[in-house]
Amino acid sequence: MITFSNIYADSFIKSHEYEQLKPSLSIAHEQLHNQTGVGANYLGWLDLPLDLNQDEWEQVQEKANEIKENADVLIVVGIGGSYLGAKAIISALTPTFKRSDLGPEVVFAGQHLDGDYLNDMFEAFQDRSVYVNVISKSGTTTEPAIAFRFIKRWMEERYDKGASKRIIATTDAKKGALRELAETEGYDTFIVPDDVGGRYSVLTSVGLLPIAVAGIDILELLRGAEQAKKQFDVNDLEQNEAYQYAAFRTLAYKKGKTIELLATFHPKLHELSEWWKQLYGESEGKDGKGLFPASVQYTTDLHSLGQYVQEGQRTMIETVLNIRSQTKTLHVPSDATDLDGLNYLSGKSLHDINQKAVQGAMLAHIDGQVPTSLIELDTLDAKHLGALIYFFEKACAMSGYMLGVNPFDQPGVESYKRNMFALLGKPGYELERQTLEKRLWE
Ligand code: PA5
Q1: How many whole angstroms from its chain centre is CA 285?
Q2: pLDDT tens digits, residue range 372-426?
Q3: Distance between CA 336 and CA 338 in Å, rounded?
Q4: Which mutation among 41, 42, 45, 82 tests ligand 1's pocket best, with the greatest number of atoms within 8 A of CB?
Q5: Which residues are the active-site ones (predicted)?
């Protein structure tokens, strides 16, 4: 279902180096599976596909059905792990150009602080039937909280008392401002499990509700993850391809590479790259360590960043994410005049041409001394994406442990928040405000 290959990097990382890494891999595996590593109370995602009980996903599906019946639009309010997973899966599995006959459109808000975006949204959806799913594990994150204040007022102006029946909150079972607000307003709620951090939460109700509203089979997604769990639980580098990927990037980092590019050749995978960047960036980038996760979307970026990848600083590795087969594809028509000289491609499928671009780019980048690895899915569907999520999560946790960091916290995210609160005049931050303003105006 999912395969990984590092043979395209074997002139850079030799087989004996993989051998030497095996003890570290084994230790990381034991730490994860025996819950003895750092951040061990955030390992709920490891067993999620098996633990999610029938009642839970049935409730999610039931609510999704209600929204599908009554809404034209679902606005998902959240930031980071509270929206990226759902956005990734929905973009990958629904038509690029939305059709109104395919159920509600799922859109996102609260992932930044831009007023134009909210204004545009209110204008666009003024005459459409709207539901809202506000998602925050902590229930206190500033960006979604501010956006929700606007959206809540807009919903109440439109639906009066009926607004609370159209708002669903996904948050902690007991604590946080959003939990209190939801209880006071009488919103339906879904719970984010305590032991699953934001960026590992796409297979909880955080991701599953918006994904189900978009018409995607959430059971298939979970089945794919369950299959991947079995496949990627084995403590054996030769058999476990998630561990091979973790080993590839760990060794590349040890040998001085500083950037990992995730390269996709399908625009529908663009948002998946965004989810992947958060997963790896927030999990590994700490204590002055970690590969910087960046993404490119080929062949588009072969005409921009491709130049740098081929000939710029040799600081990067590339991980190509490829889809082997496409169910619906187009075939190049023949043309009597052949003025564009493309008749040599007549009858070929666009997918096959894209696959030649994958191969051509990989070989060129290998020649350009970019150590390259290849992750392949048989096809793009819910089951494969469920498996891919689990593959990346497992490899990320393993990489983090081998790097010697806690892959489940994000202390660095607090620094900008403290500054922003101080500059906004939040009570309790008076001293910091003075210091910061001095630095800005001097
Ligand atoms: O991975 C994480 O934990 C973070 O990216 C969070 O998902 C993000 O900060 C949003 O947090 P919350 O869901 O508490 O609003």
Answers
A1: 16
A2: 999 999 999 999 999 999 999 999 999 999 999 999 999 998 899 899 999 999 9
A3: 6
A4: 82
A5: 282, 417
Would you state the structure tokens that stand for residue 106, as one six-digit string?
A: 């799922």
283 Cβ below 6 A of ligand 1 = no
Q: Which of 32, 30, 4, 31 is nearest to 18 (CA)?
A: 4
How far away, in angstroms, is 199 Cα from ligand 1 center?
7
DSSP state of 291: P
Q: Is 199 in the pocket of ligand 1 (CB under 6 A)?
A: yes
Per-residue CA distances from 35 to 46, 47, 60 (Å): 11, 12, 29
Q: Which amino acid does the sequence have at 278?
A: Q
- Give me the domain span that covers residue 376: 2-37+222-403
Evaluate whether residue 195 is within a structural domain: yes
- Structural Rg of the chain based on CA atoms: 23
| Rounded-to-integer distance, Cα 371 and Cα 249, Å | 10
ipTM of the complex: 0.98
**Closest residue by Cα to residue 190 from 208, 177, 176, 212:** 208
- On whether the CB atoms of residues 254 and 371 are closer than 8 A, the answer is no
pTM value is 0.96
Length of the chain: 442
Asked if residue 202 and residue 56 are part of one domain, the reply reads yes
C-beta of residue 269 within 8 angstroms of C-beta of residue 376 = no
Say which amino acid occupies 304.
S
- pLDDT tens across 168-183, in order? 999 999 999 999 999 9
* Distance between CA atoms of residues 245 and 389, nearest Å: 14
**Catalytic hit among 274, 282, 284, 318:** 282
On the 0-12 / 13-18 / 19+ scale of CB atoms within 10 A, 409 is middle
What's the 137 CA to ligand 1 centre distance in angstroms? Answer: 7
Question: What's the rounded Cα separation, in Å, for the pair 31 and 34?
Answer: 5
Tell me which of 84, 108, 138, 415 to substitute to probe ligand 1's pocket, judged by most ligand atoms within 8 Å of the beta carbon: 138
Q: Is residue 413 part of a domain?
A: no
Annotated active-site residue 282? The verdict is: yes
Same domain, 240 and 255: yes
Q: What is the DSSP annotation of 298-322?
A: TTGGGGTTHHHHHHS-S-EEEEEEE
Number of domains present in the structure of the chain = 2
CA distance 146 to 140: 10
Ligand 1 atom at shortest distance from the alpha carbon of 278: 5
Q: Determine whether the shortest distance from the Cβ of 81 to ligand 1 is under 6 A.
A: yes
Condensed to tens digits (0 to 9), the pLDDT of residues 223-249 reads 999 999 999 999 999 999 999 999 999
Cβ 85 under 6 angstroms from ligand 1: no
